[in-house]
Amino acid sequence: MALHRSLTAALALAMALLVAGNASAQRGNERQKATPAEGAVPPADAAPARAARPANPQAADQQRDPPTVTGTVVAYEAGKSITIETRNRNGAKKSEFAIVKEKTKIELPPRQAEIKVGMTLSVWADKENPATAARIGANSPGRGNRRPNNRPANPNPSPRPAGDAPQAEAIKPPPRPARQPVAGLDPLAVAQKIDREIDAALAVAKLPASPRSDDAEFIRRVYLDIAGVIPPAEKVSAFFDSQDSDKRARLIDELLASPDYGLHFADLWCDRINVKDLPIYREPFVDWMAGSLNAGRGWDEIVLDLLTAEGRFNFITRGKRLGTDDPQALFLLLNTEEGQGKGPNPAWLAGESGRLFLGVQIQCAECHDHPFTPSWKQADFWGLAAFFGRLRTENPGQQQGLHWQESPAPASEPVSIAIPATSLKNVGQTIPARLLGLDEQYQPASPELLRHSLARWITAADNPLFAKATANRTWAHFFGRGLVNPVDDLRQDNQPSHPAVLELLAGELRKSQFDLKHLIRCLCLTSAYQRTSQPLPENEDDNTKYSHMAIKTISPGVLYDSLKAATGWPEMKVGLPERRTKLTVISLFTPREVFVDFFRAAQGEEADPLEYEQGIPQALKLMNAAQLNRVAPVAQRLAESGAGRDQIVEQLFVTTLARRSSPAEAQTMAAFLDRRAGESAQQQASAVLWILINSAEFGSNH
Amino acid sequence: MSSFRNPQSAIRNRFSRRELLRLAAAGVGAASASGWLPVLAAHAAHGAESGRRHKSCIVLYMSGGPSHIDTFDLKHDSETGTEFQPISTSVPGIQISEHLPKLARLMHHGAIIRSMNTVESDHDRGRYLMHTGYRRSNGGVPYPSLGALVSAELGQPGFLLPNFVVCNLHDRLDPAFTGYLPPQHRGLILPTLDSGIQDIQPAVEPQELADRLELVTKLDDAFRGKYRARQAVAHQANYCRSFDLMRAEQLKAFDLSLEPASSLARYTPGTYDARDSRSNGIRDFGRGCLLARRLVEVGVPFVEVVLQSWDTHQDNFPRTRLNCEALDPAMSALVEDLKDRDLLDSTLIVWMGEFGRTPKFENTATGRGGVGRGHFGRAWSTVLMGGGIQGGQVIGRTDNIGGTVEDRPVSAPDFMATICQILGIDWQKLNDGPGGRTVRITDKGAQPIKELVGA
Known about the structure:
The structure holds two protein chains of two kinds. Chain A is α+β, with helices and mostly antiparallel strands. Helices cover 38% and strands 9% of the residues of chain A. Residues 1-64, 128-169, 316-321 and 580-587 of chain A have low confidence and may be disordered. Chain B is an alpha/beta fold. Chain B is 36% helix and 14% strand. The chains are: A alpha+beta, B alpha/beta. At the A-B interface, α11, α20, α23 and α24 of A face α7 and α8 of B.
C-alpha cells in the first residue's frame, strides 16, 4: 500500500504542475513559430546546420526600453525573487531575479492582478542582478562512424515553419522547468554503498564472491556494455600496459564521453520501442536519441519529448532514405494505426508508456482484469489510455508529413474513454480517466492538453515508478538481469532482489536530474560489476546474488558492429535475404538493419540477454557467407605487417576476444597452421580469424 | 517478455537429453580432426530406424484475405454477390466456384468451414490471430506461430532438417515467429525456391570446414570449462545441427530439379512469364506446394506456402479468378500426390487467409469490372483437407449474402484447437510462458470442431 500513498503524493505534484501550466498563450512560443525558413528540408547528405542555432530569445525584444526578459514564471516568491524561463526547442534558459523595490519592474498580462507560476510576463531588472542561465539539450556532434550514413547528432530538430500550427489551438503545454547543473554527485560512494548491500546478501546466503575480473575481461565487457562494440586491439594493448591504478574509472569516463555510448543506447531503445516494424525510421531516431544521450540530457526530458512529440514525419524519399524532421515522434508513430478512421491508438500508447517508462505491465489489463498481476485492473488501463484519447494525427499531404495534434480537454469536465470493440470484456463501457494508483477521476481545472499532463506525471521526479523503472532497466543491461524481473513488471507482489539498491539508484536518478551517465558510472564502478564471470565451485549455481558476473549474449546490432571491427570490412554485406516493406524499396534498408533483422531471434519480444538465440540460418551465415570467407582487411594488414606467424595469431586473439591466447590455444593454433604450411600468410590469418569469429566466446560478453 | 527465464529449465527446453548427449559426443575433447563426422553417421542410422511417426501440416496461406463469397461460399442473392458460377463437387450438395474445378473433384477428402467468425480486420493482426489463435496485445505474452508450435510439439530431436519451413515469403508479414518458444523453432524462410537454403553450401572444402570447426570446438570447450558458459553449449549444439544439415542426405528434398517435369507441370500448368511478378508468384506457389510435398515425405512436420495477392480492394473478380487458377492445380496436385503416397491421412492441409472479404463492393466508381471487396472477419471460409478428418463436409452456414454466420460460428481459437487435435497436439496443454507463467496452447473457451475430429 506504500505504493498507493506515494503515487497520491506524486499526483499532488502533477496537479500543481498542471494548474501552473494552464496560463494563457505565451509570447515566447509565438515568436519561435515565426522563425523563418527553419522548416526547409535539407538534402539527405547535408549536415543539418540548424542544430547549432544559438538560443537567444531576447534578441527580438530589443526595442527602445526592452524588458530584460519575457517568458514564463517558473518560481515566484512575493517581494523576494522571481524566476523566468524562456524556451525554444533548442533548450530552455532560466533567469532568476531578486525583486528589488523601485528597480525591478514586472509587467503583468492584461486583466491579471497577481503574479502566478506559469504566467507569461516581462521583467525589467537591475543590471547588477545577473540572470543565471542553464541551457538544456546542448548537443555534441557525433563523430563515430561505425554506423552507416552516420550524420552529426541532432537532438533538437528545428521548430515547425511559420503558420504551420492550427490557429485554433490556444492552449500550449506549460514550459518545462530549466535545469541547473547538479553538483556533488559521487558515483564511487554510491558504488560502494551498492557493494555493501550486495555483499551483505551474499554473506547471508553464505556465498563467496568471485575475484575481480582481469583487465582483458573488464575492457571487453565495459566496451560491449557502454559502447556496444568490441574494443580496438590497440586500446586493449594500451590498457594491459597501463600502470594507472585508476584506469578502469578512466576508461568508463572515456567510453561515456564517446559518441558510441549514445549510439549504443539509442540502438537499444529502438529495440525496446519495437522499431523493428519500421526500421526505416531507425536512423534519424538513433541520431536524435544518441545526440540527446551524449549531451547528457535527463532521461525524464527525453521521455517527455517522446510522449509529447508533434511530429513532422515526411514520407518523401530523400536519396535512398526516408527522412523525418521530428525523429522523437517515432514512439507515437509506432503506436499509431494506419488507415482511414485510424490514428493514435490510446491503448497501445498507454500500454507501451506503462511498460517502457514506468515498468508496469498494465497492458495486460487491456482486455480484462489481469489474472497474474492483481495490481492492475481493466479500469486502470483504460483510465490511463483516456489521457491519449484526444490525440489525433493529421496528414496534410505527403509533402507535409504526419503530425500529432491534441485538442485541449475542456475545463471542469471529467475525462473518460469508451472501451473499444477490440477489447474482450466490457466493450462500450465508459471508463473515467485516472492516473495509476488513484481513486478519483481526472478532471482538468482549466482547459489543458491531457497527453502533456500525463507525460509530466510519468516523468515527475516524485513518480516512484519512473525512477525505479529507469534504474532497473539500466541495471539489467549491465548485469544481465534486473533487480526486479521481468524488468517491466514492478509491482507490490514482485519485490526486488535488493530493495535498498533499487531505492538508492532511484534516489541517485532524482538527485542527478535523471542523468544516465551518472547512473552508469555508479554501476560500472561497483565491485559487483567488475567481478570475473568465472564462477567459484561454491557460487556456480548462483544467478541472482551477483557473486560472479553473468555471461550475456551480444545483441545482433552489437554483433554486426563487432564483426566490422574484427574484420575491418567497412560494411558487412553477407548476402542477406531481400526484405520488402509495403514501400517495396529494398535499398531503403542499410546492411546493418538487414543483418540485425536476420539475426533477431523472435518477433514481438525483447531478446533474453542470457540466452544464445541464433538458429541454423544464422550459423550457416556466419560459417559460409562469402564475405566472411574472403581475406578480411584485418587479416591482410597483419599478414603484410611482417609479423611472425605466432604474433599474427596473438594479434587476432586480441582483436576478436580482447585477450591473449592460452598456451593450449596457441599450441592448437600452431598445429592447425602447420597443416597449412603451403598457404599464404593472408590465407592463414583469415582461417584463424574465421575460427575466432565463429567461437561462442566472440558472441558472448563475459 | 521472456527475459530471465529459469536458465536450467531453458536448457532443458532447448535440448533434449539426446541432444545434450550428442553434444558431449560431438564436441568436447574429440581429438580427431573429423570429430563432427561420426555424429552425422549416428544421425543417419537414427533417421533410418525411426521412420515417420507424427502427422504433418501444410498451411496454404492466402495472404491478403481471400473472398469467401467468390471461392468456397458462393452468394448470388444480392447486387454485390459473386459473378462466378457454382459447380458441383465430388460430395453431393456441396458447391464451390467454377474456377476451382480440380479441387471440386477432391472435396470428399476435405471440409469447408463456412462459419469462421474472427475479430481482426487488419492484415497484420489478422495474420497473427490466425497463426496463434490469440489476439495480439502490444507488449503482452508473445505467442508462437502455428509452425513453431508444431515444431516444438511434434519435431523429432534427431531430425536433421528444419521442422518448420516457410516458402515464398515476400513481405514483412512473417509467420515464422516463435513467440515464447525458444528460437530453434523459428521457421526457415525460403524467399524464393530457386536458391534453396541460403548459405547451405560450405565456402571451403568440407574437410577444411570440419578441421576449422574442430578448433572452434576446442575454443568453445575451453570457454565453457572456464566460465561454465551455457551459451557455449547452445552455440555448440546449433553449429552441430547446422553442420549436420549441410551434409544431410535429406537436403535433396529441397532440390526441385530432382522432380520430373511432368510432376511440376501438374502443380503449375500453363506458361509463365519470368518478367511478370504475378506470373512468377503463381509459378512459385505451385513449386512451393511441390516442395511442401517433398519435405513432408522426408518427415518435415510443418510447411507453410504463401500465395500473395488476395487483398482485392480493386478488381476483385479478375484477381480472385487468377488466384484460383494458381490455387486449383497446385492444391489439388498436392492432395493427389499425398494420397498416392499414402500420406494424406497423416498430412493435414489447411487453406486459410487472415480473413474473408466484405459482401459489399468497394471502389464502385470504376464500374462493375473494377470493383473490390474490403477486409471482413465476421463471416468467412477456411478449408481443411486430409489429416484423417471426416471429409466431405461443410461446417456452419452464412446468411444469403455471406455477411453473418447463421450456424455454428468457429472462432480463431476453435480453429486452432481443431488443427491441434487433428495433428495429435494436446490443445489444452499448458506451456511455460514468459515470466514463469503458464500459457495454454489455445485460448480459453476454445472447442475443436467435433464434426471433424470426432467427439
